[in-house]
Design brief:
The complex is a heterodimer.
Chain A (H helix, E strand, L loop, with lengths): L1 H16 L3 H45 L1 H9 L3 E2 L7 E2 L2 H32 L2 H13 L5 H51 L5 H26 L10 H26 L2 H9 L4 H30 L2 H6 L20 H8 L10 H39 L1
Helix pairs in contact in A: 2-13, 4-8, 4-10, 5-8, 6-7, 6-8, 8-10, 9-10, 10-13, 12-13
Chain B lengths: L1 H24 L4 E5 L4 H15 L3 E3 L4 H10 L4 E4 L5 H9 L4 E15 L7 E2 L1 H9 L16 E5 L4 H9 L11 E3 L2 H10 L3 E6 L8 E2 L1 E2 L6 H5 L6 E9 L7 H7 L4 H9 L8
Parallel strand pairs in B: 1-2, 1-3, 5-10, 6-7, 6-8
Antiparallel strand pairs in B: 3-11, 4-8, 4-9, 4-11
The chains are: A mainly alpha, B alpha/beta.
């Protein structure tokens, strides 16, 4: 069977080789045309990106030409772009709101996402992981306006009516496992400091002691916040939690890929040397996968910074820096929400400052996005480099 | 390669040019520009008018100020405006040989709403202004519970915001801690679910899920708005150059609000018809 196919193939190849010059030229022309067409198609998205970049730079420049504007933009919280004759473009509160929501959502999404990735890749068996991963990735398929609606119509009233209890439950749910896990290395560290040669019983006792101490600290914190009343449910906390859910699929799937990419030889080598599963995960696999995980976190970060609809509906869009500055239960406004909210009033025909300031905000987002992108590329290339070197 | 790109570019440019000049060639279309508040009325009128006569309308919503500019440049037949023309705009019009004529097509009233659980039922204009500028921060000062007021405003894009800002705040800045929402419906939902919130919405949106406050002792209703007793209301205009010739499409369009169908359309959109 195989021999015959090979034979006919050979005959065809021979026939193709003997060609008159005309058809040869025609084929070459066709090939060139095809290549040219494909190049054109590829050039379209690239050109579109370049055009958009150029446009954002061009339209934000008039705003940055006025130095007084720039100083106000970064240092003042007086945002009154529509006041006739005396407009103000102080965006400090908006920049701070963006930072706050981004940091807040990463504080939720990063530990959760990496833990989930470790669990899916290292702890549970492949069958369960195959069930869970698509579910997590499904989060990415939900349109952001649906998230926003959920945040406004379901999560915000919940926060208002049962805010304190919800947060203390959240602290317990997140804090107790963290306390439990971190008590182990803590006890190890403490025992190596206290005893010269720790007996197993002493280590166990220390572990129990450390675990109990940490857990009770978490419980105390939960008890303290259970009495808090939240006057408005659309606030930085709400936006952070919803954005964290949106960033989870990115973080989970990319970190899981990074963890799975760590070779079987590493795991087996570590286990063969007598390391426990815990030690293998935390001392071998995680350090090996750290560049991939860092990229996952950065991509999650970028997803959060660029998100508009959710923050527009969930963050309350208030124009002040919360008091005190770490109060996540006050409404804030982000750059993206401001651009979306002010766009219609910005008059592009007259090219007012109000129009250009929105492009200046886009530029801020663009620059931070590009910086993050650059950072992730750098981490990837360095990771690849390190691996190559390690291979030698 | 380069030639191919050049040819494609030229073709695209030609196509774009053809598309942009197409609407200008169709003379029959009524061209309308201006306020985003009057926009929905114009759109609904245009749909109705197109169905009835086959004559379409091109509607842009670029704000009242731009509506006037379009009228002055002869770029539109009708300028929608949610405020009357300013002196300076009127003078420019006359200088350019345009005689603006105002047609009041509807009234727009804003209801001030709070959560049904709120004890406060009436406010004065001064109190309302104080709440939104941040001088009053607690319901206690207004005879309600001891709770911080959650101030909710519409986003600065909306005509509703402009009306409120002009009629109630006299263009004073809104308190910095105020929350901004993107639509009337969202404002209502937030108030319905937030115990200490206050917001303003178009009259059509104030339903049973929220409590409508009386302002200066008067509850908003089509009647109190048309009679001018309710203070947070304003007329909505369409401006034309001179009074349109009777029988022309533009004449039909700016008189549509007087017919029963036109009044129904206005009512459906949550505005108040002129002859209520």
């Amino acid at each position: 069977m195989n021999a015959t196919t090979a034979d006919t193939g050979g005959a065809r190849a021979k026939g193709a080789l003997i060609m008159d010059r005309h058809s040869c030229a025609a084929k070459m022309l066709l090939g060139r045309l095809g290549r040219g067409f494909l190049l054109c198609v590829t050039a379209v998205p690239t050109a579109a990106v370049v055009f958009i970049l150029f446009f954002i730079f061009k339209e934000s420049l008039p705003f940055f030409e006025n130095l007084g504007n720039v100083r106000e933009f970064f240092t003042s919280t007086n945002w009154a772009p529509s006041r006739e004759g005396d407009p103000h473009f102080g965006s400090l509160a908006i920049l701070y709101g963006t930072l706050m929501v981004t940091v807040g959502s990463c504080a939720v999404a990063v530990p959760l996402g990496i833990t989930a990735a470790i669990c899916l890749s290292e702890i549970v068996n492949a069958r369960i992981s195959r069930i869970f991963r698509p579910i997590v990735e499904l989060f990415a398929a939900i349109p952001s306006v649906a998230y926003g609606f959920f945040a406004m119509a379901v999560f915000a009233p919940l926060l208002q009516n049962h805010g304190g209890i919800m947060i203390s439950a959240l602290i317990l749910a997140a804090g107790l496992p963290i306390a439990g896990v971190s008590s182990i290395p803590l006890a190890e560290f403490a025992s190596s400091k206290i005893f010269k040669k720790p007996s197993p019983a002493a280590v166990v006792a220390l572990r129990i002691f450390a675990g109990a101490a940490l857990c009770s600290a978490v419980a105390y914190a939960a008890w303290r916040v259970s009495g808090v009343e939240i006057s408005s449910g659309t606030n930085a906390f709400n936006a952070s939690v919803i954005l964290a859910i949106m960033a989870l699929p990115t973080i989970v799937s990319i970190s899981q890929d990074a963890l799975s990419a760590v070779g079987r030889d590493m795991r087996e080598g570590s286990l063969a040397l007598g390391a426990t599963r815990f030690e293998t995960i935390f001392k071998v696999i995680l350090p090996c996968a750290k560049s991939g995980i860092a990229v996952a976190v950065i991509l999650g970060f970028m997803r959060v910074i660029g998100e508009t609809m959710v923050v527009w509906m969930a963050s309350g869009n208030s124009l002040k820096i919360p008091e005190p500055f770490y109060n996540f239960f006050e409404p804030v406004r982000t750059l993206t929400a401001t651009i979306a909210g002010e766009m219609g009033e910005a008059d592009q025909t007259t090219g007012s400052a109000r129009y250009h300031v929105l492009f200046a905000m886009s530029l801020c987002l663009l620059v931070s996005g590009m910086a993050l992108n650059w950072l992730s590329q750098r981490i990837i290339s360095r990771g690849a480099f390190a691996r190559k070197k390690g291979g030698k | 390669m380069k030639k191919t790109i050049a040819t494609t570019m030229t073709l695209i440019a030609l196509a774009a040019a053809a598309f942009t000049s197409a609407p200008a060639m169709a003379e029959k279309n009524i061209v309308i520009d201006g306020s985003t508040t009057v926009g929905p009325i114009a759109k609904a009128f245009a749909d109705y008018y197109k169905e009835k006569t086959g004559i379409g309308a091109t509607i842009s919503e670029s704000g009242s100020g731009n509506g006037v500019k379009s009228l002055i440049n002869g770029a539109c037949d009708i300028a929608n405006m949610s405020r009357f023309m300013k002196d300076s705009e009127f003078k420019t019009c006359v200088k350019k040989g345009i005689l603006p004529v105002a047609h009041v097509v509807a009234f727009d009233g804003l209801a001030v709403v709070v959560n049904p659980a709120n004890k406060v039922g009436a406010l004065t204009m001064a109190q309302l202004a104080d709440i939104y500028t941040g001088k009053i921060r607690n319901w206690k000062e207004l005879g309600g519970d001891d709770a911080e007021i959650v101030v909710i405003s519409r986003d600065t894009n909306s005509g509703t915001y402009e009306t409120f800002n002009e009629l109630v705040l006299r263009k004073n800045p809104v308190v910095k801690g105020a929350e901004y929402v993107g639509s009337n419906g969202q404002a209502k939902t937030r108030v319905a679910s937030t115990k200490n919130a206050i917001a303003y919405v178009g009259l059509g949106f104030a339903d049973d899920s929220v409590k409508t406050l009386s302002v200066d002792g008067i509850l908003p209703s089509p009647k109190t708005i048309v009679s001018g007793k309710y203070p947070i209301a304003r007329p909505l205009f369409m401006f034309t150059n001179k009074y349109p010739k009777m029988g022309t499409p533009v004449y039909d369009f700016v008189t549509l609000h007087l017919s029963e169908e036109g009044r129904e359309i206005v009512r459906d959109l949550g505005y108040v018809p002129v002859a209520e």
